[in-house]
Design goal:
By secondary structure, this protein is an alpha/beta fold. The chain has helices at about 10-15, 25-30, 35-40, 55-65, 80-85, and strands at about 5, 20-25, 45-50, 70-75. It has one domain (about 5-85): 3-Layer(aba) Sandwich (Oxidized Rhodanese, domain 1), CATH 3.40.250.10. It has a four-stranded parallel beta sheet with strand order 2-1-3-4, covered by helices on one side.
Length: about 90
């Protein structure tokens, strides 16, 4: 089973997010998130799929997570595109 990671900011997450996604904003990663802290949140033995609003931040977050040793895939579609493609939204 893979991990779906939303790298948008908390305010965007609060406006709506995908079911079963986890939140780890790019700003937190860029601020120097410690590998040990990230490992508590995201298992190293899983493929991590990243998404954001339009695909740009997920690419940057992928670079940061690769440096920490994660197997990552940045999704090109943004949040709205993923909803339109049939990914379920989390219940509010």
């Amino acid at each position: 089973m893979a991990v779906l990671l939303d790298v948008r900011e908390k305010s965007e997450w609060d406006d709506g997010h995908l079911k079963d996604a986890k939140l780890l904003p790019l700003s937190v990663l860029k601020a120097g998130a410690k590998a040990e802290e990230v490992a508590k949140f995201i298992p190293k033995d899983k493929v991590v799929y990243l998404h954001c609003g339009s695909g740009i931040r997920s690419l940057k977050a992928a670079d940061e997570l690769k440096k920490l040793g994660y197997d990552v895939r940045a999704l090109k579609p943004g949040y709205t595109d993923l909803l339109e493609a049939g990914f379920p939204a989390a219940k509010k």
